[in-house]
């Protein structure tokens, strides 16, 4: 989630919630649901689940 916070100024509480998600899809929708661009959400979650 450092990617999302550092590169795109995603709020740390939001990144933390996404990081705690159980699946990639849940992570993605937590971020994208708060208006984080789709590509940023997908990349951040992919990095977290690799």
Topology:
Blueprint: H1 2-8, H2 12-19, H3 24-32, H4 38-49
Question: Features of this protein?
Answer:
single chain, 50 residues, mainly alpha, 4 helices, 72% helix
Walk me through what this model shows.
The structure is a single chain. The protein has 50 residues and is mainly α. Helix content is 72%, strand content 0%. It is built from 4 helices and no strands. It has helices spanning 2-8, 12-19, 24-32, 38-49. Helix 1 (2-8) packs antiparallel against helix 4 (38-49), helix 2 runs antiparallel to helix 3 and helix 3 (24-32) runs antiparallel to helix 4. The longest helix has 12 residues, at 38-49. The radius of gyration is 9 Å and the shape is globular. The two termini are 12 Å apart. The mean pLDDT is 94.
In a nutshell, what does this entry contain?
With 50 residues, the chain is an all-alpha fold. It is built from 4 helices and no strands.
Largest sheet: none
Spans where pLDDT lies below 50 across 5 or more residues:
none
Distance between the termini: 12 Å
Work out the radius of gyration: 9 Å
**What amount of the residues lies in strands?**
under 5%
Helical stretch count? 4
Would you report the number of β strands?
A: 0
Average pLDDT level: 94
Shape: globular
Estimated helix fraction: over 70%
Class of secondary structure makeup: mainly alpha
Q: Helices and strands, in N-to-C order?
A: HHHH
């Amino acid at each position: 989630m450092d990617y999302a916070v550092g590169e795109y100024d995603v709020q740390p509480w939001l990144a933390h919630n996404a990081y705690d998600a159980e699946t990639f899809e849940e992570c993605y929708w937590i971020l994208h649901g708060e208006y984080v661009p789709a590509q940023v959400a997908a990349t951040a979650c992919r990095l977290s689940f690799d």
